[in-house]
Design brief:
single chain, mainly beta, Immunoglobulin-like, 2 domains, 2 helices, 8% helix, DUF5007, DUF5007 domain-containing protein
Length: 345
């Protein structure tokens, strides 16, 4: 058997060499580049004063990954160059995963970092479009155009005349003013905000509808990021939060669709001695994923109470769903046009 070992070794060596030669003879697989790739939109409305994100907007049509994306030929509506959209600004970006389980604003901020990026920006391998937080001193409201070049080793394609529709700031949602004209919307189209209402009655035990209560958002300072609630009756007298006897103040949570979890409504809750002023420390934006979620993530809160009426116990609630994009100290004012009834009958 031993005398055949050299022959086996020679055969194995020849087989290995043949396999190596065959490998070199096989042509390299080329990247596939589909001419049917497309964006699902070519018009991008954005608001100054906040981060705007357009994600999941590109269909690669099975083109070989990675694809390389680049913004080109950024211009005004009169075709002149718009270099202001390519200037770098400070942006807040995540360096750690946001879980929704954080217990302080500081814990959340520790997971973000400041990075310089162009105002009009794009993820280089996904085509997601960003318009980072800037103001009208840098970029004026109006229509701009840009092109997007997409390529891999198999080919390239330029998507021309993409529209960037830069609009006025919308510091919170729902916002009562038109972000193009700056004028207040018609009253029946959101010109005044109203809360959701359930089971609230007036002094005659008549049900109050949402239009009988107005909600106002007011920025009071820029020193911090806080959110303060106040409730007033029809005579502008404060209504104590102690009336909302079913509200679990220390365990209020809302559902974050972007994070997929229930998260705490603000931090470091404090209430004035007469219980007419309720304040939370909050993030900016609030909720923290309001901007990167495509403006879909909203915080919600409900002020809940019950009362006894002729031997029956009734639950009632006033609820809000909103987002605040502009940093600062904000007040949310809830104003009744008809006085609500909290007393038992």
């Amino acid at each position: 058997m031993q005398r055949y070992l050299p022959y086996f070794a020679i055969v194995l060596l020849l087989a290995f060499m043949a396999a190596g030669c065959y490998k070199h003879m096989v042509p390299d697989e080329e990247d596939f580049f589909s001419n049917n790739m497309n964006y699902n939109r070519n018009n991008f409305p954005v608001n100054l004063g906040r981060t705007n994100v357009y994600a999941y907007i590109f269909n690669a049509d099975y083109s070989t990954q990675p694809l390389d994306f680049a913004i080109e030929n950024v211009r005004h509506s009169d075709s002149t160059a718009a270099p202001e959209l390519l200037e770098n600004v400070d942006t807040k970006q995540w360096k750690e995963y946001y879980s929704g389980l954080e217990t302080t604003v500081a814990q959340i901020e520790a997971k973000r970092t400041t990075v310089k990026r162009p105002v009009l920006d794009m993820r280089p391998h996904s085509g997601e479009i960003f318009f980072w937080n800037t103001d009208s001193a840098r970029v004026k409201p109006g229509i701009y155009y840009f092109d997007v070049r997409v390529k891999n080793k198999g080919g390239e394609k330029v998507f021309k005349n993409m529209v960037l529709d830069v609009r006025r700031p919308r510091p919170y949602d729902p916002y009562e003013f038109d972000d193009i004209t700056g004028l207040r919307k018609p009253l029946d189209q959101g010109g005044i905000n109203h809360p959701d209402v359930s089971g609230v009655v007036d002094m005659l035990n008549l049900a109050l509808i949402r239009d009988s209560i107005n909600v106002y958002f007011r920025k009071t300072d820029v020193k911090g990021n806080t959110l303060t609630f106040k409730i007033f009756d029809k005579d502008s007298l404060p209504i104590p939060f102690s009336n909302f006897n079913l509200t679990r103040w220390d365990s209020l949570r809302y559902r974050s669709g972007a994070a997929g979890v229930d998260v705490a409504f603000g931090f470091n809750r404090r209430m004035s001695p007469d219980s007419t002023v309720l304040t939370y420390d909050v993030t900016s934006p609030f909720p923290i994923l309001a901007d990167v979620s495509g403006n879909s993530d909203k915080a919600s809160i409900a002020f809940v109470y019950n009362r006894v009426s002729f031997g029956q116990r009734f639950n009632a609630a006033i609820g809000l769903s909103f987002a605040i994009y502009e940093p600062g100290d904000w007040e949310v004012i809830i104003k009744f046009k008809v006085n609500p009834k909290f007393q038992d009958d």
